[in-house]
């Protein structure tokens, strides 16, 4: 739910106001159903939940195309704070690839210096993870050999994650990777 919530809040933030079908269309155009494991129904659920939590507020109602009226929402200040929190968490904390993918899509909501600091935090957390996994492999106790293959897999995944984060951090430190403006299909809001 958090990756879906992050992406819904991000689209609402950039769009200024949108209804569920617009959010869904935007996220499907990004293939978020694949890399963030988002289902259309979860988008509508995330919108309703965010509204109930005070992260979105109803802006207007529009006639639907032959169906029910469409409710357009606008992100609240609390919603922007939650969006930033989720992006920070997804970028800095290893272990949830769906959150990381969503955070990468939402990088433009953070400034360059903060992205660099969060990547450094991620790299350090991955160092700690690799240390624990190597210790487990070195002294597996009663763990069956075939189960230790999980540790081998996780070491490889953590290394790949760490290499990616270090490479992105290097690019940012060298002045590369200009964080883009919001997608052209959306109109950014002014904070």
UniProtKB/TrEMBL annotation:
InterPro entries membership: Metal_resp_DNA-bind_regulator, Tscrpt_reg_PadR_N, WH-like_DNA-bd_sf, WH_DNA-bd_sf
SUPFAM superfamilies per the UniProt record, alphabetical: Winged helix' DNA-binding domain
Classification via Pfam families: PadR
Transcription regulator PadR N-terminal domain location: 9-84
Protein name: Transcriptional regulator, PadR family
Taxonomic source organism: Actinokineospora spheciospongiae
């Amino acid at each position: 739910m958090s990756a879906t919530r992050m992406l819904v809040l991000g689209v609402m933030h950039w769009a200024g106001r949108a209804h569920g079908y617009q959010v869904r269309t935007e996220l499907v155009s990004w293939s978020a159903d694949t890399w963030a494991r988002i289902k259309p129904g979860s988008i509508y659920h995330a919108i309703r939940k965010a509204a109930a939590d005070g992260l979105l507020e109803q802006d207007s109602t529009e006639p639907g195309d032959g169906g029910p009226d469409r409710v357009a929402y606008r992100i609240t200040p609390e919603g922007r704070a939650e969006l930033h929190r989720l992006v920070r968490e997804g970028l800095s904390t290893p272990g949830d690839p769906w959150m990381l993918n969503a955070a990468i899509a939402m990088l433009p909501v953070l400034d360059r210096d903060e992205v660099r600091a969060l990547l450094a935090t991620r790299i350090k957390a991955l160092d700690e993870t690799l240390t624990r996994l190597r210790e487990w492999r070195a002294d597996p106790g009663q763990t069956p050999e075939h189960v230790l293959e999980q540790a081998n897999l996780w070491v490889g995944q953590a290394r790949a994650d760490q290499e990616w984060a270090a490479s992105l951090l290097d690019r940012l430190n060298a002045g590369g990777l200009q964080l883009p403006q919001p997608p052209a299909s959306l109109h950014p809001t002014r904070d």
